[in-house]
Design brief:
The chain has about 325 residues and is an alpha+beta fold. The chain has four helices and eleven strands; from the N terminus they run αββββααββββββαβ. Helix content is about 50%, strand content about 25%. α2 packs antiparallel against α3. The longest helix is centred in the first third of the chain and has 72 residues.
Length: about 325
């Protein structure tokens, strides 16, 4: 086959040189009709059962349209909804809980500080009362001397001891309140850290579950990757995809090309923008075009390179994809 193609290329090239109209000008070759971007083969998971086909051959579809649905699509959509709800809960409720816990922590800190401040005032009052009672006792001891009865002396000594005891009690209560306050603040900070860490873990887990659910949903259907025309549907509802999984072929038919094979000795004569013309038995008339790109790789066996010719009338060949035609390029 390669030898036949090579001989045909040489024949066309020599014929172009021998023709008076194209002497020392035209470069000939064979080409195949191709759509812009080529034919896109859309595949599903190997062995998947087709539940619905939403398109027909020849139908134009927009990017993102669902073309083929596989069994399991309904459950996959349900999993995505559940994952989205979990993600919403993690994103919206989690920060709210953290904020509420922060408010509780701040309220506890404020109330604890006020309680300690009040107790410090009580300690100061008890200290003042104890000092006053002690000063009175000493003063009466100096002034009263033997004139004071034993009962009065005991009363004043007891008053001094009671005020001192009240001071000790208030001081111990202040120390207890400070210890409890420090403990509660540390405990609240630990709860806050746990909430933040739990929120990060839940958000990450929810995101991973959502990504997995969306990936599973994507595997349960075939979606059009571009705006284009369906050119082949090679499966039916109820059938399974093969090992390759190909179900639908589509292409952009608003611009068509001739993928020409040009002999290596003719490549240096060509440049982007050269005028070209294709012809063939299935064409009512030749179609003009222009060279859009010139391949840089020469095949080892056939000694040819690929030249891409953009055709002026794509509609005439939009239903002739992969058809072989003759091409003449004028350098």
């Amino acid at each position: 086959m390669r030898k036949t193609t090579l001989c045909l290329l040489i024949f066309i090239s020599l014929s172009a040189w021998a023709s008076p109209a194209h002497a020392r000008k035209a470069v000939g070759g064979v080409a195949r009709i191709q759509p812009e971007g080529g034919v896109i083969c859309l595949s599903g998971p190997p062995g998947a059962t087709i539940a619905a086909i939403n398109v027909r051959e020849g139908e134009f579809v927009k990017k993102g349209v669902s073309l083929v649905i596989f069994q399991g699509n309904v459950s996959a959509r349900h999993e995505v909804k559940l994952a989205e709800l979990a993600m919403k809960e993690a994103v919206e409720l989690g920060p709210g809980k953290i904020k509420f816990e922060g408010l509780k922590m701040e309220s506890s800190r404020e109330s604890g500080s006020k309680a300690i401040g009040l107790q410090e005032l009580k300690v100061a009052r008890a200290r003042s009362d104890a000092a006053y009672a002690e000063r009175r006792r000493k003063r009466f001891d100096k002034v009263g001397g033997e004139d004071l009865s034993a009962e009065e002396t005991d009363r004043r000594n007891n008053q001094a001891r009671c005020t001192k005891l009240l001071l000790d009690i208030a001081t111990l209560e202040l120390q207890r309140m400070k210890l409890d306050y420090d403990y509660e603040i540390k405990l609240a900070a630990q709860r806050m850290d746990n909430l933040v860490l739990g929120q990060e873990i839940r958000s990450k887990r929810a995101m991973e579950q959502l990504q997995l659910a969306r990936a599973k949903l994507a595997q349960s259907m075939i979606v059009a990757p571009i705006d284009g025309t369906i050119i082949e549907v090679d499966r039916r509802v109820g059938e399974r995809t093969g090992d390759a999984g190909t179900c639908v072929k589509m292409a952009k038919l608003d611009q068509m090309y001739a993928d020409a094979k040009i002999y290596e000795s003719d490549i240096p004569r060509l440049k982007v923008g050269d005028k070209a013309q294709i012809s063939g038995d299935a064409l009512a008339s030749p179609i003009a075009g222009v060279v859009e790109s010139i391949g840089r790789i020469i095949t080892d066996t056939s000694k040819i390179a690929h030249v891409k010719v953009r055709l002026d009338d794509p509609k005439q060949v939009s239903s002739l994809i992969n058809m072989e035609v003759n091409v003449m390029i004028t350098p």
